[in-house]
Here is the input.
Amino acid sequence: MDISEILKKLSDSFGVSSWEHNTYSIVEETLKEINSEIEISKRGTGSLVAKYGNGDKKIAFFAHIDEIGIAISKIVDKDFVRVEMVGGVDPRTLIAKRVIFKTEKGDKLGVIGMLAPHLQDKDKRGQSPSFDELFVDFSISGGTEGLNVGDIGVVEAKSKELENKTISGKAIDNRAGVVSIIKALDYLKKFKFDGTLYLSFNKGEEVGLVGAKGMAYDIHPDNAIIVDVTFAEDLPDNIETMKIGKGPAIGIGAAINKEVNKKLTDIAKNENIDHQIEVLPMGTGTETDVVQLTKNGVKTGLLSIPIYNMHSPVEVVNVNDIDLTAKLLALYAYEEGGNK
Here is the structure.
């Protein structure tokens, strides 16, 4: 399994919250190449779950597969529409971009323009626009005919391999996590595994942790590990900054089970897997926060992959960090899965 190629395919695919099904074919195809007999099913309101093994100990790896985007909120006239965000979209990332919308008649291209700096009022040049000031121009693709309020779109962006094993693209949050749990299965198949492993590719994290809630209740694993991304940019002086290329960040905090955290940390140290420690004193802002509360509680850990430029069309990740995350996950499943 080529991590870079799968990540680029997933990054380029259209999978805004509630439209995740467009990415599932890539996931299913890759899983079947790893193990042709793996059980794959769509569950709940639209998450995808793969099951490997039939042992007593149930372990689940969770990674949300949705991405942020925009939705048409008003059709203004024959050429222009207004939009609102789906998930945490900064309007500054949309200016002077091409955007693709899914419609009943197929994909439709629009442009979010920008007034030339020569024509801007001097007192407004330094101001950031709000969604109240953004319009999508469809005059370049036949106008607004065929569009409907509620149609979903994303910035048109093509993933690109950079230097030092890095990749830039949209939706690295959290397709990097998706690739890591798939690759973990690729590693795990080389071991004797006597437990049951669930890979849960969850919908709707960007709009309220939607998929993880239902899947955690449905699977109700003994132990769970959430895989998401984290900030690699400089943070305030009192917070340790996670670094790209230094391995996954193992979360520690109130929402994270101490046994799972210790197990992950011990494995990483014993197997010489580069890793970092991320302190999350209260909530994590990830699916960890809801999975741990399921039924009578689930022992839950968190691995985060550092990225640059989160929630933008040019997020950046190091492929080695994804690979190291996968190795750590596979060894965790092997040791916890009751191997004999």
